[in-house]
Design brief:
Layout (H helix, E strand, L loop, with lengths): L1 H7 L9 E7 L7 E3 L1 E5 L13 E3 L2 E5 L5 H6 L11 H21 L4 E4 L5 H8 L4 E3 L4 H11 L16 E2 L2 E7 L2 E7 L7 E7 L2 H4 L2
Parallel strand pairs: 1-11, 5-6, 6-7
Antiparallel strand pairs: 2-11, 3-10, 4-9, 5-8, 9-10
Length: 207
């Protein structure tokens, strides 16, 4: 598998394009190679179970922003001279987050990943529109997904063009031992690989 992984990244000498994930349980024979990217399912909010777990040729949006209502509250200081203005401020906060989510949907992406949190409101919003999302994806995994799928990590949801979206032949969430994994295979760049190591103990995965 190691040889196949190195061959998979071609002439690219960036070994960080090879991911190694350890999943206790099973035997070493249960280990496998993904010609693409795989990482453990991140923390998820209510509504996640309603999201689709498999797509064929999906477009994917890669973000480095929070999609949480609280982020709007924490990033601003507002002084009110009239208590009646409070409701208008609350409404504005909701409008801001819904505008962000709507722009994600309008991009055409079926998979939305972010290095920062994607909260319960956003998770349910995406689920209702048959979109998969995952927040708090590690920097390393997000960059590998970008390299593999041809996507570009965005710091805003404004003016998203098709060229910044990634894609792969198959995206699926799959059970591996006691863990759930997000797996991106058939990636157009063909310059990434992930080795998923199985074993009855941590020592097995360190060999």
């Amino acid at each position: 598998m190691v040889v196949d992984a190195v061959i998979a990244i071609g002439n690219d000498d960036r070994l960080n394009m090879i991911g190694i994930k350890k999943v206790p349980g099973g035997t070493m024979r249960d280990s496998f190679l993904v010609n693409g990217v795989a990482f453990q399912k991140t923390f998820s909010y209510a509504g996640f179970e309603q999201q689709p777990k498999k797509f064929v040729n999906p477009k994917m949006l890669l973000l480095n922003i929070e999609l949480e209502l609280k982020s709007e509250k924490e990033n601003a200081e507002i002084r009110l001279s009239d208590p009646s203005q409070y409701q208008s401020i609350v409404d504005a906060e909701w409008n801001i987050i819904y505008d962000k989510l709507d722009k994600c949907v309008q991009s055409g992406a079926k998979v939305v990943l972010s290095r920062l949190a994607i909260g319960d409101l956003a998770t349910q919003y995406f689920a209702d529109r048959d979109i998969f999302c995952a927040g708090r994806v590690s920097e390393e995994d997000l960059q590998r997904v970008a390299a593999a799928t041809g996507g570009t990590v965005q710091t805003t949801v404004n003016n998203i063009i098709d060229e910044v979206l990634g894609t792969c032949e198959i995206f699926e969430e799959k059970q591996v031992g006691n863990e759930r994994f997000n797996i991106f295979s058939g990636c157009p760049s063909g310059r990434t690989a992930t080795i998923v190591l199985r074993g009855g103990a941590d020592q097995d995965g360190n060999r």
